[in-house]
Amino acid sequence: MTETGTSLDVRRVNDTAAVIGVRGELTGATEAPLMDAYARAADAMTRKVVLDFSGLEYMNSTGIGLLVTLLVRAQRQRQRLMAFGLSDHYRQILSLTRLDEAIGVVDTEEEALAAS
Amino acid sequence: MTTIGHAFRRVVRRPQRAADAPRAEIATATPTAAMPAVEIGEHDPLLPYLQSASGAVDVDALQLESSALRELRSAGVKLVIPLVTHGELIGTLYLGPRLSDQDYSADDRRLLENLAAQAAPALHVAQLVQEQEAEARERERFEHELQVAQLIQQHFLPLTLPQPPGWSVQAHYRPARAVGGDFYDIVERPDGTVAFAVGDVTDKGVPAAMVMAATRSVLRAAGQDEARPAELLARVNDLLQADMPPRMFVTCLYGVLDPATGHVRFANAGHNLPIVRTAGGADELRATGMPLGLLPGMRYVETDAQLRPGDQLVLHSDGIAEAHGTGREMFGIPRLREVLAGAASGDRLLGDVLDALRAFTGPDWEQEDDITLVSIAWHSGGLLTSFEVPSEPGREREAMRRVADAVAPLGLPGGRLEKLKTAVAEATMNAIEHGNLNRPEVPVLVTAGVEGADLVVRIRDEGGDRPIAITETPDVAAKLAGEQSPRGWGLFLIQQMVDRLRVTSDGRYHTAELVVHLEETRHA
């Protein structure tokens, strides 16, 4: 838990995939925990990192900036970034910002893990 | 004393009349030689002597230390016949020596005295008629001047008043009979702010009206490109001062209101202080300065005030506070404040003040001075919320939540509400971080209200003195390629989330106005 009431849980699904559960908010205050969670989620074997946004309450423009930073990192490490559980509102924001062209946005964890 | 003064006026006027009607009826030494006009001074002892003389006065025989008498002698005057009616000396007949070189006989004198006794009342009547005619002409000239002055004054008062959304602007102006120099002006500036001025020219009549007209014009012209009240008054003072007639000056209160935020900036050149009527009472806003037109190079102080929804700004002139009641006491500022505090709000406030004034002065009151009352009222009806948040990172969530709560009665569809919340949060973040530089003690003011068919949320910070940073349009490909910072999504998001984003700066404040069209929302 961060002081803003956010928790980031890392769960390794298998050797090549991990899920980061984002509960609470994704803002500037979440930067260090998010980068830390990503480091824990992704090692040399990891090909896919899935962001579980079903517990996301609030994301602001700084949070969107963090997603861009994650994306840059993922691309450098040749990892695929996926997301599920987004509300219609945040899904629309990822669409408006065209982040959904780089992050695979799906409805469920299964879809995220099954996606190539 | 009065009698002497009265008589003196007539005597002084006499030589002129003598020139109008030559002394042909009286025997003179040489009919063609004009008798020199001899003035009898106000304090000359000859004056009381003539007033009480019973008949013709023999100039050569008179024993009196009088300069007028000496003059009469050297002019060759032998006889003076006082023209007296009702005990009042209204003129004199001067006679030179008889043409026959003989002295005036007793018969001559009696004839002249009879003539004087009959001529005096006739002359007196003629004098009265002439005076009345002169008075009538003077009155006519005065009435005409009054009409001209009224025309000038009315021409330079605004025909219509701006009515910003959510505000009601009203003015009451009633000239006294002898037109004073009150004026007021309220205009909407190109940036959406409203400039207001109330003033009073010393003196009355046409000169005051001319100065009032000039002042109004100079104020308007200067107001086009100067939004800072203190600088504006300084400039207007210098412009007016050069051409101001002696012993005249102008008091003036000038201010600029931002209807979006209720922020008022004003400066005062010796005029009555503005009064703010709030739910808690009526208080004067302090600001002092020299009247316009007295001295060059005057400097004025800018003062500011923050109005809240439901507040009412009242401007007034001397005509109210200095009106006298039946007991000769003045209406006064304390009473005015008291009346304002207890008056109905909004459009009925001015009526309440005038009713109180009428009750105070009584029905037979002749208005002593121009009365000017201006009311600038901020309606509370359309406003849903107005609050401040300290400039600390993360406080945007509070702004977001409170606006969401406040607009709940509008029943925005879920998607629209979420978008508005994001826009409010982003705009508040910008205000906290870029506007107020994360200084917790500097508040961000957030207001939300319905204006016509729009929901308008305004977020104001105190970074209005710095230029608004132009951000590049975020491009995800450029960001991923490292050509743009990963951040910089805020303004872009706001623009996508609401129907209109308008950003304004006024030198102190910087306001982001978020507009959501309610009609489209309902149909969506």
Describe the structure using short key phrases.
heterodimer; A: 116 residues; alpha/beta; Transcription Regulator spoIIAA; 5-stranded mixed β-sheet; globular; B: 524 residues; alpha+beta; Beta-Lactamase; Phosphatase 2c, domain 1; Heat Shock Protein 90; 3 domains; 5-stranded antiparallel β-sheet; 14 helices; elongated; disordered N terminus
Question: How does this structure look, described?
Answer:
The complex is a heterodimer of chains A (116) and B (524). Chain A has 116 residues and is of the alpha/beta class. Chain A has a single domain (7-114), classed as 2-Layer Sandwich (Transcription Regulator spoIIAA), CATH 3.30.750.24. Chain A contains four helices and five strands; from the N terminus they run ββαβαβαβα. Chain A has helices at residues 31-41, 61-76, 88-96, 109-114, and strands at 7-12, 17-26, 48-59, 80-84, 104-106. Chain A has a five-stranded mixed sheet. Chain A is globular. The termini of chain A are far apart. The relative contact order of chain A is 0.17. The mean pLDDT of chain A is 92. Chain B is elongated and about 135 Å long. Chain B contains 14 helices and 18 strands. The longest helix of chain B has 50 residues, at 106-155. In chain B, α10 packs antiparallel against α11 (414-435). In chain B, β9 and β10 form a beta hairpin. By secondary structure, chain B is of the alpha+beta class. The model of chain B is unreliable at 1-32 (pLDDT under 50). A five-stranded antiparallel sheet of chain B has the order 4-13-12-9-10. Chain B folds into three domains: 2-130, Beta-Lactamase (2-Layer Sandwich); 156-378, 4-Layer Sandwich (Phosphatase 2c, domain 1); 383-523, Histidine kinase-like ATPase, C-terminal domain (Heat Shock Protein 90, 2-Layer Sandwich), CATH 3.30.565.10. Helix content of chain B is 38%, strand content 23%. The chains are: A alpha/beta (116), B alpha+beta (524).
